[in-house]
Write a structure and sequence with these properties.
With about 140 residues, this protein is an alpha+beta fold. Helices cover about 30% and strands about 20% of the residues. β7 and β8 form a beta hairpin.
Length: about 140
Amino acid sequence: MAKLKTTETTANVKEFIDSFADSEQKKEDSYALLKIMEKASGSKAKMWGPTMIGFGQYHYKSDRSAQEGDWPLIGFSPRKAAISLYVYTGSKEHEHLVKDLGKFKMGKACIYVKKLADINIDALNKLMRTTIDFLKKKYPAKS
């Protein structure tokens, strides 16, 4: 099995934002997301791979393959085209949570927003709490 590329690193989150975010707006939004996601997750921001900022973590085992590994509970990346938000389970039972989110595009595993002002932060907080609760229940931490 191939080694996972996206793993937690020791890279500095703030240095990453300052060097990677391609506009002042993305930098401001990234620093705002740091606070929002730290509060929602109760975890400090960590770099995951070269371009993803994650909060908390869980250990998953795929239902469809032998793949397993660690992944952040929630996260984001200030990419050039849009900010990628990793805050959604993709589960049919959670589709209603994105209806009040605002202006975004949906990918297979993430939500893309041009700027933070385009979305409803209360709806984002509810979405993150539901996702965190879902992941912790599905993949309980081993003692």
